[in-house]
UniProtKB/TrEMBL annotation:
It comes from Cryptosporangium phraense. Residues 23-113 form the STAS domain. SUPFAM superfamilies: SpoIIaa-like. This is STAS domain-containing protein. One of its GO terms (molecular function) is anti-sigma factor antagonist activity. Pfam families: STAS_2. The lineage of its organism: Bacteria, Bacillati, Actinomycetota, Actinomycetes, Cryptosporangiales. InterPro entries: MlaB-like_STAS, STAS_dom, STAS_dom_sf.
Length: 113
């Protein structure tokens, strides 16, 4: 795994409340600085709901899962929420084992989210 093994695209929805991060590759603590900065910027701009489209993730480490919890808490403090959609089993399983699927919503696909 390298620092650039995570790619992302952050889309601000025209509703002014929801931002979607589409992520791909290995989500590690070494690779997520730019993604987190963009999401925190969106929350600072007044967006309060965060959707993480995880369909193309191949790995997520425990530090990054903790950062998802932090983003969730920040969104909730602003009256919003965080939702992870379409996580592959390699991402969904650690969320389930750690109980994170009870902390924020994890949905099988974008339509359900």
């Amino acid at each position: 795994m390298t620092e650039d093994s995570l790619t992302h695209d952050v889309h601000r929805h025209p509703d002014g409340q929801t931002v979607t991060a589409t992520v791909a590759g290995d989500w590690t603590a070494l690779a997520d600085e730019a993604l987190l900065a963009e999401l925190h910027d969106a929350l600072d701009e007044g967006y309060r709901n965060v959707i993480v489209d995880a369909a193309a993730l191949t790995f997520v480490d425990s530090t990054s899962l903790g950062r998802l919890v932090g983003l969730h808490q920040e969104a909730v403090e602003r009256g919003g929420w965080l939702r992870v959609v379409s996580p592959p089993n390699v991402v969904r399983r650690p969320m389930t084992l750690t109980g994170l699927d009870q902390v924020f919503e994890v949905t099988p696909d974008r339509e359900a989210g």
